[in-house]
Amino acid sequence: MPVDLPPDEVDAFRRGDAPAPMLDLIGLMACHAVGAARSLGVFDALAAGPSTTDELAAAVGADPTGLDQLLGVLRTTGYVRRHEGRHANTPATAAWLCSGSPTDYGRILGLWQAIVEERWAGLAGAVRSGTPAGGFYDWLAGRPDLSAAFHDLQRGLAEWLADEVVSLVPLPEGAKSLLDLGGGHGAYAAAFCRAHPGLSGTIVDGAVTDGSDGRLTWRAGDLLTADLPGEQDVTVLFNVLHGFAARDAAALVARAAGTLRAGGLLVVLESMPEPSGTAADLAFAAGFSLNLWHTQGGALHPAETIRGWLEAAGCAPGAWTELTRSPSHALVIATT
């Protein structure tokens, strides 16, 4: 969490009178401190009420002296507060870092900490040579705890956005078939089927096994090489294109367009490289795009680039629509 700097200190860092990288160093320390606190159960223990250091140490099974040092970092970086010798969670910690929080951001933080610390090694050499390290999914497969966190994150994001996405996509009258390319969790296809009782969904993804559940069918397959069903009423590419380099992403758009019947819809949902949200959204998007390039060979592709791929595939794209629930995501509907 950024340190709560008074205006004069902010101005000093911006002018270069103070070392701005010091704030990044503090952030690095805070990230590790939060990870340690979550491992110890500090935030959950404080959710039960304010505690002294000794009380908290007894509750989480920690050494009071070491815990007091850890609490010092958490306090000065805004994760806990102290009043009359008792520690308590700040509102932000209660909202985002306790296991009972609606969104447990701690798992997300832990995942990204591991990605940056382990997968960004060699970043300078990759930038120098133009050859990304790659291997993200192989690395993830060897880390079951992180793999579970990653897939939970993907599903959670989809479930958070699905209702709004469905409301923005007017299906062709009488639509019966939807093809979801890369949506292995099935959350989007399920949401469309709930909203349209006559619809059935087929999900093709390299990370699933063949199977079915009600009106949903899963098929394992590489999106760039697998045989894909045709004559679909709707085909969706949701948060998929950014995992591919531009050439392969364009090829995937063309393959998706080829699955549609005349008058069918191709719907693309993507994170934008320059979102119109907050400064934090913009900074995260830049880091996310760098991570995609270095660990997967992908990138956050510009909206106009994706529009060009749709047109080259014989589709007529409409205007991009930003999601209200996540302004960093935008959706475009193209007709064949």
UniProtKB/TrEMBL annotation:
The O-methyltransferase C-terminal domain, residue ranges: 138-314
GO BP: any one term: methylation
One of the Pfam families matching this protein, by short name: Methyltransf_2
Keywords from the named record: Methyltransferase, S-adenosyl-L-methionine, Transferase
Residues in O-methyltransferase dimerisation domain copies: 27-97
InterPro entries with a match to the protein in the record: COMT-like, COMT_C, COMT_dimerisation, SAM-dependent_MTases_sf, WH-like_DNA-bd_sf, WH_DNA-bd_sf
SUPFAM superfamilies: S-adenosyl-L-methionine-dependent methyltransferases, Winged helix' DNA-binding domain
Molecular-function GO terms, alphabetical: methyltransferase activity
PANTHER family linked to this entry: O-METHYLTRANSFERASE CICE (PTHR43712:SF2), PUTATIVE (AFU_ORTHOLOGUE AFUA_4G14580)-RELATED (PTHR43712)
Identification of the protein by name: Methyltransferase
Taxonomic classification: Bacteria, Bacillati, Actinomycetota, Actinomycetes, Streptosporangiales
